Amino acid sequence: MAEEQLSFETLKVRAGYKDIFLLVMLLLMCGCHHHQFKIGVTSSPHLASLFLAEKSGKWDKNSHLVNFPTSADVGYALISGKIDAGFMEPNKALLIKEIREFKDIKVIGKITYKYGGVLIVRKGLDLDLHHLNGHTIGISEPECKLYHALLKDIEYAHDSTAGIRFQTIPFADMIPAIEAGRIDAAITKSSYGAYAKKLGMTIPYSQWNITAGDACCPAVTAQCEFLLLGRKEKANETDQLSRLLLETTKESDAVLRQAAAEKTGISGDILESLPVAAYDVADNKLLQLFITVDEKEKKE
Amino acid sequence: MHAKNKNDKNIAGEIVSFFRFSFGTIITGQFAVVIIPLLLLWEVVPRLHLFSRNLFPTFSDCASAFEHLLLHSNLMGHIGLSVFFFLIGLILSVITAVPIGILLGWNPALRKYFMPVFQILAPIPPTAWVPIALIFLGVGFPLRVFLVYLSSFFPIFLNTFQAIKDTDRRYVLSARVFGASELNILIHVHFYHALGAILMSIRTGISIGLIMLTAAEMYGVNGGLGFLLVHSKEFFRIPDMVVCMAVLGFIGWFLTEIIKYLEKRICLWKESRQEA
Fold first, then answer.
1. Which residues pair with A205 in a beta bridge?
2. Containing domain of residue A43, as a range?
3. Cα A215 to Cα A146: distance, rounded to the nearest angstrom
4. Which of A126, A224, A248, A261 is an S-S bond match for A52, by CB 3.0 to 4.6 Å?
5. Using the beta-carbon criterion (under 8 Å), do B52 and A100 form an inter-chain contact?
6. Residue A106: CB partners within 8 Å, gap ≥ 6?
7. Counting Cβ atoms within 10 Å, is residue B275 exposed (0-12), middle (13-18) or buried (19+)?
8. Residue A14 burial by CB count (10 A; 0-12/13-18/19+): exposed, middle or buried?
């Protein structure tokens, strides 16, 4: 009986040590979780300066990139506090501005890309400007500058546009529409070029001599591919991230392309043929777009 | 003419009987006691500002979204498209899975050759087929139909196979004693024995098929409830998302009710067994 009681006492002590060990582990895990700075991203090559920053020695070890399928998902995670900062497309960021929780968010910076138009053609289809007749081309809207630039260049090449069928499709839906075979090609923003090439599509035409700014593409957001948004309570970390991005964006195009290629899986050859996106802090014009109703009332 | 009128009356009678059968389970006092408080809770909780109303819309917000989608966003068109592709996939799976299940359940020799193939393929989750289906079939019609077909094929096939295999030997032997041919035994003994299980498996196939239809419509399409759901999510229209979810749930329920009604009308022995 004494031996049994001894064993039982030993067991109680052992169970106690086990409980303490588990408790310590739990606390450590909670601690780790508490100090993490999470940044929501999509796997876009235009975030090259961020990917390069992640590899640099100045990257905060508590910062982690969290991948999301789309920037709308980044938005949901940001406003629900699951991440501390995130890169979102400007049109999506303007939509979440209307949500009450956006008062805890601020716009910190922007990723810009050289504005231009590219004609993306379906994989396997051998098209150029002279052979567009009889095919269906997607355009964002009839007043789009990119569309008018294409028409001008076709006419300059002494070809007629009468036999071309134009179909209006939002920019974001153009590549899926080409893949589905609903259209043969699309005239879209140059920033979609890298992704299109990754899918095996060709770009027989590009026009860089276009200034952003029309009804479909307001100048403030047209050249903006992503906005860096951050939660206000993490101001120190987001400012630190912004400063680091300002440093890495100054690196050479080759270094930035390599960082993007490693992270996104898009080959260096594809990225070589296209410009590199740059990071900059948000200017007043951009910040004006994101003033919430509460802030407007406070100012008044 | 008289026969045609009689047929029309029969069809109308069946339709009325079906709606009484299906909606009769929902429009009851007991269900009202549960659903009305839930709806009230749904309406009131977001208004208490415990959650953001943008992220957690009220019942009335969703009702308004439903009206808007119906009148201005061609909701019926999206529903029609989804149901069309879904039915093609489901019908194809039924007309292939049932005969194959009957064949392999009935013939032990064929079973030894072919059953291992199905046993290996069946556990693969339908969602795991999406990338390879995208590569070989592209997006749009083939992808939608294939994913619905694949996800509903295996439950129907496996249940049919098992039910045929488990046919009570006494029935088979009795039929043989009375001089029935193998074909007659297959149709009038095995098949009818398995009919309840087949219909039950079609109900399972409907649920899984709807899941995969929604997944398929997230890739490169411009119509359908899955497309509308993702589109609403991308543009932060949460009431619209809730409407899409509710409509998908209703479609699944309605199709399941059709199968239950068919079971009630065809599998009469089950009804009498339950009454006994």
1. A119
2. 36-113+223-299
3. 12
4. A248
5. yes
6. A229, A230, A232, A235, A238, A290
7. exposed
8. exposed
pLDDT confidence of residue B117 = 94
- Asked if B125 and B118 touch (Cβ cutoff 8 Å), the reply is no
**Do residues A201 and A142 both lie within one domain?**
yes
- Classify residue A173: in a domain, yes or no: yes
Query: Over 90: is that where the pLDDT of A14 sits?
Result: no
Question: A262 with A284, same domain?
Answer: yes
Is residue A85 included in any domain, yes or no? yes
Asked if residues A145 and A214 have their Cβ atoms less than 8 Å apart, the reply is yes
Residue tagged 């039910």 (tokens): B163
A40 shares its domain with A174: no
Q: Is residue A22 part of a domain?
A: no
Q: Which tokens is A223 given?
A: 């050249």
Most confident range (mean pLDDT) of A138-152, A269-283, B18-32 is A269-283
Within an 8 Å CB–CB cutoff, is residue A122 touching chain B?
no
Predicted complex ipTM: 0.75
Separation between Cα atoms, residue B61 and residue B237, nearest integer Å: 11
In the three-class reduction of DSSP (H, G, I as helix; E, B as strand; rest coil), residue A185 is classed as strand
Which of these, A37, A11, A53, lies nearest to A245 by C-alpha position? A53
- The angle at the Cα of B107, spanning B101 to B109, to the nearest 5 degrees, equals 120
Largest CA distance in chain A: 106
The whole-model pTM stands at: 0.78
Q: Is A176 on the interface with B (CB under 8 A)?
A: yes
> What SS3 state is found at A51?
helix
Residue A288 has pLDDT above 60, yes or no: yes
Those residues whose C-beta lies under 8 Å from the C-beta of residue B227, and which sit 6 or more positions away, are B78, B217, B218, B221
Domains contained in chain A, number? 2
Give all domains of chain B, ordered by start, each with its CATH number: 1-56 (no CATH), 57-275 (1.10.3720.10)
The size of the A-B interface in CB pairs under 8 A is 47
pLDDT reading at A47 higher than 90: yes
Tell me which residue in A95, A173, A180 faces B235 most closely, judged by beta carbons.
A95
Query: Stretch A286-300: mean pLDDT, rounded?
Result: 67
Which CATH number belongs to the domain containing residue A238 in this structure? 3.40.190.10
Tens digits of per-residue pLDDT, A87-98? Answer: 999 989 988 988
Task: Return d(Cα B215, Cα B227) in angstroms, integer.
Answer: 9
* Nearest to A202, CA basis, from A124, A114, A135: A124
Neighbour-count burial for B168-184, b at 16+ CB within 10 Å, e otherwise: eeeebeebeeeebeeee
Higher pLDDT, B121 or A6: B121
Q: In this predicted model, what pLDDT tens digit does every residue of A190-234 receive, in sequence order?
A: 888 888 988 889 999 988 887 766 655 666 666 789 999 999 999
- The pLDDT mean for chain A works out to 84
Q: How far does B237 lie from chain A, in Å, by closest CA?
A: 9
Whether residue A173 lies within 8 A of chain B, CB to CB, comes out as yes
